[in-house]
Design a protein that fits this description.
291 residues; alpha+beta; 43% helix; single chain; 3 domains; two-stranded antiparallel ribbon
Length: 291
Amino acid sequence: MFSRETSARCLEACHCAIRGSIEHLEQLSFSRAREELDREKVVLQEVKESLAASENDQVYNELYLFSAYVGLFQDYCSYWRLLSEGNFGKSWGALQDVQDSLRLIYKFWPKEECPAVLSYIERQCLEIEKLYPYKVFFSIGVEIQDIECSLCGKSMNSFDCEHIAGELYRGQLACGIAKNLVALNHVAVVTNPRDKRCVAMFEDSAGQFTLVRYLSGLLNQHAMRPLQFDRVQFRKIEVLADDLAAVGRNERCPCGSGKKFKKCCKDQGKVLRDHADLIGNEITVYDLMPS
């Protein structure tokens, strides 16, 4: 069947481009990593344009999925580049892009056929999120007049539109486009939103990015490769109070109690303070994507 043959050939080409890209990424060659993926995106588009008009929708949908697969690693490369450059605020947005791409791929890719590298990156992203200072998020509620279909331009609230938002139609994803914002209803503070981009931002030099900055340092010193980051492990360590001379009497105690240092651990001789270990492993792209 043409669909099966075309898909197998395109998918193997995607695997090859992604493996090559990650090899460059591990050496912090961000531009070369991106070039591998950009070329494959062009090839996929050329294959799509070469299809006969009579070809069934399955072929187009498969090509869309493979393009999203390559796009995921474009986002992944962007994340590590921004982290390496010290753009910590922007890197948070790129990290969310990676996870959005994962959700899209998981929706359409048969679970039993998903490459192992996807689940690895999913788990890695969740661990990396723990290094960031964002714990609460903002969510807005708005009143809109209508939702327009991205494919046919008709109202998705009418019977004239035959598309369902979030579904594929001949290699195109149907989306709802909000039209005519009427009012802003509310702004809520939440802890587990679907979109985590709306946060109170900090300067890249802020102390809140201490852990992220440490990971960036390991990356730039070639002490840890992007794929090598495995998890973060939080624990308490004991520090002698005399070693905390830089902590003022009226500052918050390093133990995390929220009390002033002078009314907490200052006179106890030792302080239990939070500590984070960044754990790596020796995994390679060929462990996750055998050639």
